[in-house]
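Reopening: structure tokens for the 2'-monophosphoadenosine-5'-diphosphate complex, inputs below.
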Amino acid sequence: MHIDGTTGVVALLGHPVAHSKSPEMMNRAFQTAGLPYIYAAFDVAPEALGDAVRGLRALGVRGWNVTIPHKVAIMEWLDEVDETARAIGAVNTVVNDNGRLVGYNTDGTGYLRSLQEETGLDVTAQRVLIIGAGGAARAVGHALATAGVRHITVANRTTEKAEELAAHLGQWTATDVVGLADINRVLEETTLLVQSTSVGMYPHVDEIPIAPSGLHDRLIVSDLIYRPKWTRLLQEAKKRGARVHSGLGMLLYQAVLAFEHWTGRPAPVETMREVLEASLQ
Ligand code: ATR
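Re-run output (same inputs, fresh job):
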């Protein structure tokens, strides 16, 4: 790869970042697209975030991804936060337009684009059940609610958090809350199940967040976990005739949309998918 005085820089800010797949995926993407950028990961402690942003702005860094634990705190250092990121309450992508810093959130839109690309689903026809009510549920719930799904039910271990998310999403669509114990009753009329908790994530690959007996063949089951690519929930869903959608798609498309924000060019999606799949083997 040719690097010279005109090469642009894009970054990742997180803490930790050493195991991130983004540097490899983004550098391959820039190379494949023939764009003069390099992507570097920076481990930034929470108390250093403001200094880091001032430095990136001064250095003319074109943009950056933001990951745990900075997705909320970054907002106070930006000039503008777009409407979607504001509604979700978190930023994962920043664009530096000649010193003006704008924050976006591509997690929810990335999820939606992946779901549509991979399943061809008509989102507006869906009755959705979201398990979990954390940051990922909030981003995906916002994307589904604003895309016009018919109804969203939220189920979470901590009921108050489910109630808070359902009330928030109620700005855009009909919502309600059920206890985890009542999931089977709701599953009967659900067409899209979104699993957003960490239950079943590597190395706890045998765990499953709900009893599989209620899964059926009219469902699309989406698990936001990407490691493993096929969680136990997705395996059980497939056995019962449901269509399955892995969290790898959301990870891929949130990066695709970030790439497009920085460069204004279509991202080389298949190259990025290959890098991700290989790195998660
Ligand atoms: P993320 O950004 O990945 O969404 P998060 O904001 O920490 O992470 O949210 C984690 C979600 O997984 C929450 O809904 C959490 O439930 P609580 O709100 O009750 O904490 C859920 N979760 C994590 N571990 C869980 C477990 N062992 N059983 C059930 N739910 C769990």
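The first strand starts at residue 8 and ends at 14. The two ends are 26 Å apart (CA to CA). Marking as resolved unless the reporter disagrees.
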